[in-house]
Every structure is written in structure tokens, then in C-alpha cells.
Design goal:
mainly alpha; 15 helices; disordered N terminus
Length: 302
């Protein structure tokens, strides 16, 4: 990012070091695309919080939080925005009902501030605004059945063929996330709720994407929530969340530490649901190590 600021008209790191594809004027690292950088920036917040618990210090200051959040916004990642949205939903379900009124007010204040920051970020980003405007044409496109290569422009309602080509460019890379949910929606419209609750089986997202996309390869969704809902249903998704939260709740040290770690775990899960990565597994492993160390230390000094 620094090189992009200093050298006008030049790019720094490509999307991947091996393919040389530019990501434009966006913040990202060497872990992959900017949306990967967004996920790992959130993981860095969790790691810094774990360091404070390990050392009994408070080094995760407001400066570091603002710096990391600013870098996250500069990724211009739609997955990052969705991750924050999923995180907010998870907090509403798993955290707020059991917390104090003061924490509830604090949470809603933070949500309003973050929502304002995201809104400004979307307005200032041509890429995100394109997603916003062209999202409303997606439903009418899908109503015509599976999209083939030629269908993108033939079904487009824009008068300008250039605008239709832009629409195709926006959504063609996201269809592996869209088709499983669209197929599930088609079943729900016919009052078939079985697969919504118990899923279609592991690996079924690739199968349905192969059908719609006329492909013979693996076409798994990028978003973890798509794969989880379609393959394991609502029940399986709830069990998946519980598998990450239960170990933290079981290793109870004190309420403040547990509440903090549950919040950060919900953040990791929210980012995972928006874009599949290893961050919930990495964070859970580190949490268990830290809590186990704190438990041994407490027992040794008791």
C-alpha cells in the first residue's frame, strides 16, 4: 500500500505473487486477495487481545484498533462488510441476551459508528457502489434460469451493451456463492423446507454449482455461510457455531475474559461466514492454549 501511494501509476503486490494480477488501489497482504487480508486483520485484533490476557497487560490500545479498522476499510472488500454484518447478527443472538444494559448500549453505539464508516467507505468506492447498483438486476437475471455465457448480455435490461458487460464482470466471479442460495430459495418457494433445516449433504454446493455453471470441476462457494447453510442446513450451522463457543464457555476463568473471548470468536465466525478461511480454527487453538496456561497459573498460585 505504501508503494502504491509513493509511486504514481504503479502497483505493489499483485493478488497472488504467482499470477501477477493487480487488485487496484486496495490494501492487501501476501496471504491472498484483499478479502483474505480483511479476515486476517480481524484475526490480528484477536491475537492482540489474547496477548493482553497472556501477559495481564493492556497493549491493545485505541491506536491499534483504529489502525487495523482503517486498513480493513481500505481493502474495499464486500466480504469484509458482510463479515461485520454476520458478526453483528451473531452478537445479537449469542451475546447480548446475557449481558448488561450498559454493554447493550455500548454495542449499539459501536454498530452505528461502524455502519456510518462502512456507508462512507461504500460511497467513496466505485467497486462497492457497482455491487450495490447492479445487485438489483440479479434477481431478474436469475429468474430466466441458469445463466450461460451468452445470457449475461441477452437478459440485461441496460440500454448500453457496455453496462451489460460491466454487470457480467461483477457477478460472474460470484455465481458460485449465489447459485446454492438461489436453488434453496427455489425450494422454499415450493414450501419445501427440509433442506433448509438439515441441508443437502457435504459437497453438494459444488454439485449444484456444476449444474448451473455447466462446469465439471470443483466450484465451492467463497462464503462459509453459503456452504454451511446449503450443505448442513440451519441445524448444522448452529452446531458448527456451538463447536467453537462451547470450549471457551467450559474453560471458565472469569466472566470478563470469557465475554471478551466469546466476542472475538463471534468476530472470527462472522468473517469466516463471509469468506472461508482458517481464522476460527487458528483463533480457537490459540484461545485454548492461553486459557489452559491461565488455568495452570491460577491453580499454581492458589
Amino acid at each position: 500500500m505504501l508503494l502504491q501511494l509513493l509511486i504514481e501509476g504503479r502497483e505493489s503486490f499483485p493478488r497472488h505473487l504467482s499470477d501477477g494480477r493487480s487488485v487496484g488501489f486496495r490494501f492487501h497482504g501476501i496471504a491472498g486477495e484483499p478479502r483474505d487480508a480483511c479476515s486476517y486483520l480481524m484475526l490480528s485484533l484477536g491475537i492482540l487481545a489474547l496477548r493482553d490476557i497472556w501477559e495481564d497487560k493492556k497493549k491493545l490500545t485505541l491506536f491499534w484498533i483504529i489502525l487495523i479498522i482503517t486498513a480493513t476499510l481500505l481493502t474495499q472488500s464486500l466480504s469484509g462488510i458482510l463479515g461485520i454484518a454476520f458478526f453483528s447478527i451473531l452478537v445479537l443472538i449469542y451475546y447480548l441476551p446475557s449481558t448488561s444494559t450498559r454493554n447493550k448500549l455500548l454495542f449499539f453505539s459501536v454498530v452505528l459508528f461502524v455502519a456510518l464508516a462502512i456507508f462512507i467507505n461504500i460511497i467513496l468506492s466505485d467497486r462497492l457502489m457497482r455491487y450495490y447498483y447492479e445487485f438489483f438486476w440479479l434477481y431478474s437475471l436469475l429468474e430466466g434460469g441458469p445463466l450461460k455465457e451468452i445470457d449475461w448480455t441477452s437478459r440485461c435490461n441496460f440500454p448500453n451493451i457496455t453496462d451489460c458487460n460491466k454487470l457480467a464482470a461483477v457477478f460472474k466471479g460470484q455465481m458460485n456463492n449465489i447459485y446454492p442460495i438461489w436453488h434453496l430459495w427455489e425450494e422454499i418457494k415450493e414450501f419445501n423446507f427440509l433442506h433448509l433445516f438439515i441441508g443437502n449433504g457435504l459437497g453438494s454446493t459444488s454439485v449444484i454449482n456444476n449444474y448451473y455453471m455447466h462446469s465439471n470441476g470443483l466450484e465451492n462457494p467463497h462464503a462459509g455461510i453459503i456452504r454451511s447453510i446449503y450443505e448442513t442446513g440451519v441445524i448444522g450451522t448452529l452446531l458448527f457455531i456451538a463447536a467453537f463457543l462451547t470450549p471457551i464457555k467450559k474453560m471458565c476463568i472469569n466472566n470478563n475474559i470469557n465475554s471478551k473471548l466469546i466476542l472475538f470468536m463471534l468476530l472470527m465466525l462472522g468473517m469466516y461466514f463471509a469468506h472461508r478461511s482458517a481464522i476460527p480454527y487458528i483463533f480457537l487453538g490459540m484461545v485454548l492454549v492461553v486459557l489452559n496456561n491461565k488455568s495452570i497459573t491460577s491453580n499454581g498460585t492458589a
